[in-house]
């Protein structure tokens, strides 16, 4: 099973997670920009964070055989903080970088006027840069927030095939499907979707334009939930080609519209050099003893 996780926040995960993901078949990911868990106090904090996404985190993932891509944006939660408004001005420099395959996460959290303003602005940025958009739908009043999301996407003029609407559930599938956008489902314990429900939706709706992600972050989450979903699909009677379509080909097709995917050639699974450095730093800590040394 080969897996492209199209939404995972690896900066909050450990190297053990990268090892487990690679063993489970994960070979590529997209890490969208999101909030820190506590308020950021200024634009400089975002600049450092964006630099890490396009630099160190891509390097770190590669040490474990995983191709790292990212999406860059001012996330909806922090769009409400006036200290973060200047982030919108620095986004264009990052949206031009290799490995940045989308604008995201954008959308709604509390569905405020400030969130909508930032959402509209970033939809325009995506159009200007020819990039897909990864949209976060709110955890509260999800149906209303998703409906408004689709209205803004339609008004932006972006083709629906350039928009992935994420964190969907049974109440929002139909409206996003009707709009022609890519349907994103986060297999996230307790709060979003689980593998059994996901497989039921796939059986009822079909596999076209569906992507499945872990959305794993610093919360109660599982970076292997994509693999769990693949196994649940097989147990329910889906074929290996069906699993490959949902867990690999669909996300590759969507993010491939950026023209910036950094995927390895088929069969390229050589062991990475763990001693390699980025900006003078490696993932190792201290020197390893040589043969015969203690």
Task: Explain the overall architecture.
- There is one protein chain.
- This protein is α/β, with parallel strands linked by helices.
- 39% of the residues lie in helices and 14% in strands.
- The chain has an 8-stranded parallel β-sheet with strand order 1-2-3-4-5-6-7-8.
- The longest helix is centred in the middle third of the chain and has 17 residues, at 113-129.
- It is globular, with a radius of gyration of 19 Å.
- The N and C termini lie far apart (40 Å).
- The relative contact order is 0.15.
Question: How do the helices and strands line up, and which of them pair or pack?
Answer:
Blueprint: E1 3-5, H1 15-24, E2 26-32, H2 43-54, H3 56-62, E3 67-72, H4 87-95, E4 100-107, H5 113-129, E5 133-136, H6 142-156, E6 163-166, H7 173-179, E7 182-186, H8 195-205, E8 210-213, H9 225-235, H10 240-255
Parallel strand pairs: 1-2, 2-3, 3-4, 4-5, 5-6, 6-7, 7-8
